[in-house]
Amino acid sequence: MTRWRRAGGLGLMLGGLWLGPSAWARVPEGYTLQLQARTNMLGNASGAYNVEPGNLLPGSHRMPLTKDGQVAFRLSITPEGPNAIWWGRGGAGRRIYQLPQLGEDARADDPGLNSREDLAFAVTEATQAADNGVYLLNARTPEEVRVVREPTGASNWESLTLNEAGQLGFRASFNFVGKAYVVLTPQEKGWAVAYLAKEKSLDGVSPYEYLYSPTMNDLGEMAGVADLAPSSGEWFQELRVFNLDGTSRLVAQTRGREPSSPFFRFASVAPALNNRGQVAFIAWDKLADGRTPVGVYLWDGVTLKKLARNGEGDIREVEFFPPDINDDGLVAFRAVDAAGLRAVWVGDGQTLKRVVSEHDLVKSDLGPARIDQEKPSNPVFGGSVSINAAGDVCVTAGLAPPDDDQEEWGTAVFVALAEPRPTEPDGGTEADAGTDGGSGEEPDGGASGDAGTGEEPDGGAGADGGSGEEPDGGAGADGGVGEEPDGGARPDAGLGDGGVHRPDSGGPVPELPGGGGDDGCGCQSTSSASTWLWLLLGLTWMGLRQRRRSSPR
User: Is residue 271 reached through a cis peptide bond, with omega within 30 degrees of 0 on the bond before it?
Assistant: First the structure.
């Protein structure tokens, strides 16, 4: 029997996700880095931490970070061969699942994760089509795996997200015919399948020529960019939030669609969407002098805010990796600073804070370490960053001894803990003041580490470093902290249930601590009605349940 945990009472789960402003509501004052794991190649004297040497990260990746500090990531190279999944929290963790022998090209994509310790990840390229699908497991019982192959005919499940309601959101591919945004909602038996958007090749009445990598929030809403016509001097794109009922709202559009819009083109990496309908995204501006600098923007439902733009203030160049946003409207992203050093940033449109930077000294399991690479041209950070309700940020970076960047200590996975700690649930937004630089540090540990990777990222990650990024298509090059690439992504076929796989999970899981209308700029106002509707439904359900419990029998 599988222990995949469904969200009991979906309306209650969705209704209680955002209840008001938190103690944060501002950019954190500082960060302390907590080491979660360090990967490294076999034979390196510096060893690895919380994972065996020889287990390596992909060159580009997305690591989810839950509100209670859980982290999960895939290992695209392992000593045994098949891909594996790592999970942990609070500086402890381990590899909890490895794919069985599904064929030489079988690969797992980046996992989704929620606070109930549920994980989901897509598997493709298996020799037997019946072994492809979305794999679901719980970190406490990782040997019990359920495989989902919805929707019918899907051959890939890109940019997969698992939310707090237990819903699965992704861009489904259908054997090279076309793509669609799909949300699967758990039912007593099986899944309710909702198509939020389809490409014209799948639905002749659809306006969308191409759908880029999306993201999903805890309400089952998805945000994504779509091409409405081929580019020809201008880009004809819309950024929309798509709802489960098939409706959508326009957030922003390019000049090709609306000449008054400030945006020339949207980046092909996924935007970020929180439970309040706020959207963070990367786009090219079109300035009066003809220049098209890249910027990071936040649409808060009323106002468009510029968080960073190439050549302004502390930012030299925004890097093409998906940003992330929490319910306080804090946005995390990667960018090169004015001195040419790569860094991770958090901003809210008024304050911009450096979380950690290239060359920073940090604590590691080996003692003091420097965030560095042996060649300045090698990006020191890997993949995209993520931010949780507390304002903590998950970061992956190459490590070296403080005084010798030619010695590799592998790749470290850190959670940058926001300081001071918040005391209430995540919610509203408010601004701090000033810009800080600097990074945190963190505890010691044991030993592990990656050694440079360079693989094709999963759906949603664009090229690392530089602004000449390729259109999405679900994969782009990183260049960071890299390794040998995984095998591509071949279509699946067929449906059916693959049953429960019981491959090696590497032993027991360790106990971890903590248990509208256009405004003329191409932007649209966001209504919070859907959030409050779910909230009222959830509270009503709770009240009725309590009344039944207290009634005499």
Answer: no
Q: What is the pTM of this model?
A: 0.77
CA distance 263 to 286: 6
Distances (CA, A) of 21 to 14, 129, 191, 392, 539: 17, 47, 33, 17, 18
* Helix-strand-coil split of the chain, %, nearest 5: 5, 35, 60
Tokens encoding 199: 């490409």
**CA–CA distance, 420 with 30 (Å, rounded to integer):** 7
pLDDT tens-place string over residues 1-50: 344 444 444 443 444 444 444 444 589 999 999 999 999 999 999 999 99
- Backbone φ and ψ for 548, nearest 5 degrees, come out as -65, -40
Q: Is the peptide bond before 420 cis (omega within 30 degrees of 0)?
A: yes
- Here the tokens at position 194 are 């909702």
More confident residue, 335 or 17: 335
Cα(424)–Cα(421) distance, rounded to whole angstroms?
A: 9
How many residues are present in the chain?
Answer: 553
C-alpha dihedral (245, 250, 251, 252), degrees to nearest 10: 150
Distance CA 352, CA 318 (A): 13
Residue 395: is it exposed, middle or buried by C-beta count within 10 angstroms (0-12/13-18/19+)? buried
Regarding beta strands 279-285 and 156-162, do their DSSP bridges make them parallel or antiparallel, or are they unpaired?
unpaired
29 residue type, one letter: E
Local structure of residue 260 (DSSP, 8 states): T
Q: Residue 340 CA to chain centroid, in angstroms?
A: 25
DSSP structure string for 99-133: -----TT-EE-PPEE-TTSEEEEEEE--SSGGG-E
Instruction: Give me the long-range contacts of 235-242 (CB less than 8 A, separation at least 24).
Output: 235/264, 235/265, 235/266, 237/265, 237/266, 239/266, 239/271, 239/279, 239/281, 240/197, 241/273, 241/277, 241/279, 241/526, 242/181, 242/196, 242/197, 242/214
Q: Using alpha carbons only, give the angle 484, 488, 493 rounded to the nearest 5 degrees.
A: 150
Q: Could you give the CA distance from residue 336 to residue 358 in angstroms, rounded to a whole number?
A: 9
Tens of pLDDT along 56-101?
Answer: 999 889 999 999 999 999 999 999 999 999 999 999 999 999 999 9
- Assigned token pair, 290: 């003809």
Q: Which two tokens stand for residue 20?
A: 């008001």
Structure tokens at 214: 């999306």
- CA distances for 104 relative to 53, 80, 107, 488, angstroms: 21, 12, 9, 11
Rounded alpha-carbon distances, angstroms, from residue 250 to 152, 204, 254: 29, 21, 11
| Residue reference for tokens 């010695």 | 407
Q: Report the alpha-carbon distance of residue 435 to residue 431 in Å, rounded.
A: 12
Element (H, E) at 410: none
Interval 258-307: pLDDT, tens: 999 999 999 999 999 999 999 999 999 989 898 999 999 999 999 999 99
What is the rounded distance in angstroms from the CA atom of residue 283 to the CA atom of residue 522? 13
The answer to whether 38 touches 60, Cβ cutoff 8 Å, is no
pLDDT tens track for 107-165: 999 999 999 999 999 999 999 999 999 999 999 999 999 999 999 999 999 999 999 99
231 and 237 Cβ atoms separated by less than 8 Å: no
